[in-house]
Amino acid sequence: MDRRRDKKTANPKDEAKPFLEPNTSIDDPPRDWRKVGAMAGAWIVALGMGAWLGPAVAQGGADGEDEVALKDQAPASEKVAADRYLQHGSKGNEEYVAICDGADPEVGIATLKSLRDDFESDTGKAGQVDIRPVDSYEENGLYTVVRDLFFQNDSRQHYRLQVSVLKQGNGFCVSNAVFVDDGGTESESEGGSVTPEQLAIEFVNQIRKHNDPIAAREMQCVESSGDDPQKVVEAIQEITSSGYDSGRTGSNGSAELEEDVVSVPLKITFQNDNGADSLQVNLTVDVNVTGDSCVSNFTTGDELEPWMPTSSEDDD
Questions:
Q1: What range defines the domain where residue 57 resides?
Q2: Which of 179, 209, 243 is the last residue of a domain?
Q3: Could you tell me if residue 282 is inside a domain?
Q4: How far out from the chain centre does Cα 138 lie?
Q5: 131-146 per-position pLDDT tens digit
Q6: Does 104 map to a domain?
Q7: What mean pLDDT do residues 153-179 have?
Q8: Does residue 7 belong to any structural domain of this protein?
Q9: Which residue from 187, 133, 179 is spatially nearest to 157, judged by alpha carbons?
Q10: pLDDT value, residue 249
Q11: Residue 24 belongs to some domain of the structure
Q12: Whole-structure pTM value
């Protein structure tokens, strides 16, 4: 929670005393001026260090206290409660968010973290969380906060969520969170439309990640050519059953536009950490997306051929 306690840095000048009192008599006992000089030098160093380190110490203390405060203090507004829920929820830091007593949000902390983990797994890189305001309003004591949630590195994935917030005690808490527009579209761009590159990645992920050829076929045009999603799923299952991970989908170059068809080159990388040896299977994939936002052609490279299922015709 965003509570910052003011830390007052002690000013050595306020505590320093003159080494010689103004009315000191010359008849006072003699002083050891070597000790006085050493003390004065120490004070000069202390004053200099105080001026140099003071702001840094104060800043460091504030930063360190933020995380403690997140656990101790309720959000000061409905917007802070919603933003904190999405920001820290996507990291799995449930202790940093404020959920109303007895509430069980539809899009919970586990779901938010899973979305981010999937994004980082698909792209093979750590992702940053970006939250952008869309709308907020209050009705009969229930606050509704709509936010766009982005996970981004070289790629970007977008969800729109509606967070319900209630006043509780001296702060605010989240009572529910839902996707807007029936769960949102993972591949939405900032303007709300799906780009050909995003649709191509989603199509390939239906095959690689979800092993769902039916969902992939639903994304194909009525007239579509290329490899059969079912056979590619079976080949990928053969790869993963041989000790390789579930793979990652990434870009393999720039998309090219020809008339109303966008050709999107992608690659799938499977990793097999076998003791001291680290093996990889790299598959090239070409996906053509038409202006109607459907896949008109899907072709995998020769690298997949050894893993492809053998048809009965081949056996003959």
A1: 34-72
A2: 179
A3: yes
A4: 29
A5: 888 888 888 889 999 9
A6: yes
A7: 89
A8: no
A9: 187
A10: 84
A11: no
A12: 0.44
